[in-house]
Specification:
By secondary structure, this protein is of the alpha/beta class. It has three domains: about 270 residues, Spore Coat Polysaccharide Biosynthesis Protein SpsA, Chain A (Alpha-Beta Complex), CATH 3.90.550.10; about 70 residues, no CATH class; about 100 residues, Sandwich (Jelly Rolls). It is about 20% helix and about 30% strand. A six-stranded antiparallel sheet has the order 20-21-22-29-24-27, with no helix packed on it. A five-stranded mixed β-barrel has the order 6-9-7-8-12. A four-stranded mixed sheet has the order 14-16-18-19, covered by helices on one side. It is globular and about 75 Å long.
Amino acid sequence: MEAQSIIPVILCGGTGSRLWPLSRASYPKQYWPLFGESKHTLLQQTHKRLKGLSGLTAPLLICNEDHRFIAAEQMRQINVKPSAILLEPIGRNTAPAIAVAALKSIEKGKDPLLLVLAADHVIQDEKQFLLAIEAGKIDAKKGRLVTFGVIPTKPETGYGYIQAAEHLDKKSLKGIPISKFIEKPDKDTAEKFLKDGRFTWNSGIFLFKATTIIKELEYFAPEIVHSCRAALNQKKPDLDFLRLERKAFTSCPNLAIDIAVMEKSKLGTVIPLNAGWSDIGSWAALWETGKSDSNGNVLRGHVIANKSNNCYLRSEHRLVVGLGIENLLIIETDDAVLVANQKEAQNVKNIVKMLEEKGSAEAIAHRKVYRPWGNYTGVIKGSRWQVKRIVVKPGASLSLQMHHHRAEHWIIVKGTALVERDGEKSILKENQSTYIPLGCKHRLSNPGCIPMELIEVQSGSYLDEDDIVRFEDHYGRIT
């Protein structure tokens, strides 16, 4: 790998609680196709927009271990094989994530450029974005820590700001030394920033040589490098993933790269970015960046808006109708509906906290749960029984397992199933069924070339997912 090679480091953490009820801890916003008419998720769009960047190599993903199969599958869907998917045992903010990425990238004695990207941002002008990255390479190769400051379009109080040492020229894309970082300002201060040509929004996008950021981290936050190096040295391969050692990584300070390095370093350079950037931090942000109708409504899914203005309506399942409404956010999912005033968009996270405090399942997960072999959806549940719809991908297999507290009936409704019960195997086709008694060691596989679907009826004294004892598993989930 030559010095001019550039590795995209895609940070896949975060839960996006302001985009509840769609974004949840079990399936956050970066894994949803939220922006525009594209069927690609935010994560997929993050990588796809890099096409044409000179020196581009395979990406390196930093991922929550709970989302590892989702991230890997979404990369596979766009025919991208990451150079590595590093699994964080616990969230520790951007400085540790960048540290392990930098340390990983120099393992073979090379010193690539690292382009650090969040997996949940939107860039509308991809051509201009690539021009800014190419311009940033000039300073990055000289040993500067380049960040990309978004040209502000309004007095935004929800973003941090970067003050350049002099006025920025968005046409020339010239890098300017950073004077200082400013936390989220009040309205009056933000209005002053908007008029001053030195201030930009902090995008959280960075470009630098791996050795440069490591040296700055060693100087300003040596404990981060120490913990991350130990966690990386003791990593454990797990299928297509690399698990960072838990104890070492957990001991790492929980710091953003801005606080750990950028606010202190004398190497900071800012490149102006005028490419339709948004961090999609709320439903209101999706309304602002979305394509609206003549009445200012952004409509997604099976929705109708009549005599309504400036609304964001989104349906994932059922028909949603807005009649005579204004300035509302309405988002429908399989188990929850959010109706909010546009002005309250940032406070959706407070509702999630309330649900978490009450122990509500809707705070964490959807009825549809993704697994490496496919997915299952909760259909209906009683006190001692529940019904699920299970979809198994072609060639995939659930673990060889048993349950202490529940029995199961399986009815095949699409495709072909290979069923193993206490060592005996049989093939079931559509409209055939089988019974899995309590304590039976069993496995379900799809030997066909199309997705296999079945209806599962569970009955017993305890029905939660932790009543699974695994004996064999293709995905390393032995308990």
